Amino acid sequence: MHRGPPAHRAAWRCPGEQTAGRAQSRIPEDSHDVNPRLRRRWTWFLVLAALLLGAALRFYRLDAQSLWNDEGNTARLVERSVRLIVEGAAGDIHPPGYYLILAAWRLATGDSEFALRGFSALCGVLTIAAAAALGQRAGGRATAVGAALLVAVHPLAIYYSQEARMYALLGLVSALTLLVAERFARSFPDHQSPIYFRSTYLGLALCVALGLYTQYAYAFVLLGMNLAFAGVWLTRRPLRWRVLVPWVTAQLLGGLAFLPWLPHALKVTRWQPPDLNSGPALVEMAHALLTGITLPLEGTRYLFPVAGLLLALALARPARSRFVAWSCVAVTLLPLLLITALGVYRPAYLKFLLIASAPLAVVCALPLSRSSRLLRLLAGGLLLALLPAQVASLHNLYCDPAYARDDYRGIAARIAAEAGPEDGILLNAPNQWEVFTYYYHGPLAVYPALYHPTAEEATAWLDDVLQAGHPQLFVLYWGAGESDPHHYFEQGLAQRTYKIGDVWIGSVRLARYGTGPLPQAPNARVAALLGERILLEGVNLPRRDFAPGESVPLTLFWRAVKSPDERLKVFVHLLDGNGTLVAQNDAEPVGNFRPTDGWEPGEQLVDRYGVLLPRDLPPGDYALRVGMYRFSGERLPVTRAGQPAGDAINLGILTVRP
After folding, report:
1. pTM score, two decimals?
2. Listing from the earlier edge strand, what are the strands of the sheet with 472-477?
3. Could you give the percent of the chain with pLDDT greater than 90?
4. Which CATH number characterizes residue 452's domain?
């Protein structure tokens, strides 16, 4: 005759779980429920509403912004075979799990921006469901609804749900790991079926393996989950040693699957100096976790005490599952505290906080299940206080160009519209190739630069490019301090071409250079003194007739009479007959690499400028003038032959032919 589970086994249940009667006595919506079925329906209706809201926010304008650099790497990597994806990830700083999954997704959906980002958006929506399930386990139906709504509108989660990278998947796997871990712990007593126990055992192992193969920041989830488990296990008497074996071995099984990749993972764990000290770093991470990365810190500091009060209310309330509650708190706080304490913070690490999107929501929603109506109303008010900042952050994400991703789509279209048929394109960072060629399919030659070149390597590479004879070069500078720390490429271009100008597009700087002969001596003497310290000895202008759309190659020959004591800018202006400015180039000397306050007395400089003539410039004669001005905008006076000559030097007339 079946006697039921032995008492010493039934007493364990889930770590931190109370018996059904004790749990329900503390959950107000269950203990005073006059119509449980109606409440359950409303709960699922509200969770469904949260899912629909979250889906709308994640898929809204999903392809409005261009893929940026890292997304371009994703797009190109998932085009490859499985073997080449794994090999490519081995040279990357991320494991291959996300890329392999996205490659399969791409086969079904295509490689458009919407399709590639759609997988992340789907992961974000599924994270809402996982947060609701965690909330149900931790506090009950009110916590489930609150957690689902919080994740649905979480700006940081939405931002990375609209990016073709692995961070939305990381947030989903984090929530699923905690959910499966709770189910696994509950399945341990013998009154659960062996099949159920084995399935959750394997589920935990699979979550661990998937998390490790998704992103290395998943280690925070494992640490937080195990600290919570240990805390709950140590508070129960008598200690149940036999539950440790399956708990540990399930995770070891997942870790064993990751073992082949461990040598590659160890290669990327290098220390870099932090970008902020501990205090500001903690503030910036907490701000990002609450409001995302599309809202300035100013005016939102009130959110920190709001979040602190919600945390205090959550910890003060006995949870249905202490394991879920404590693990959510641990996974939320550990990344912030450890990154701060270890002094390794960098803004790029903010995306790792996606592991805490669902746990944070559960923690903040736990007070909604307090037995006291007053405390529930207080918790609701605190949660509503988060809403204005989150709405503002989402508005910036969707509508403010200042927070837009780097617009490689627009850059490629601009080059295609402005470049001539023989021009060339240079990419200063070689890993721009993937995202740029995702958008650019034109005939121009594209040259990816060397990574961390020596001076000799940079010179040889530029020799090859310049010998190709391109009339103009379009150069994309991105992460120049990392790819070319000594700026060998840009300095070489400043000395061996005529820089026309540059413009910032997000964090990408698009520069334009004209090429041609490089005279080393003037063909026209000027002898004009600017201020009292700088002499323009002469200029070299190879010809004086040009067509619209061409660039004027002008070489200036400077001499420092005395050492200048301030930084000055050079202006090269082209004026029509009415004195209207029609073209210009303003910059510090030698492509901004030789500021005037570093000139030595008697030093001579060769300084080259390109002045781009508009394509619609009418034919006629135009006056060419040069000079210098302070950063305040005040021009330096010009003296010639000891006589004042205004504040600009007239270099004669240029003719623009039809």
Report:
1. 0.88
2. 445-448, 424-427, 472-477, 508-514, 498-505, 604-612, 551-560, 534-540, 524-530, 638-640, 643-644
3. 80
4. 3.40.190
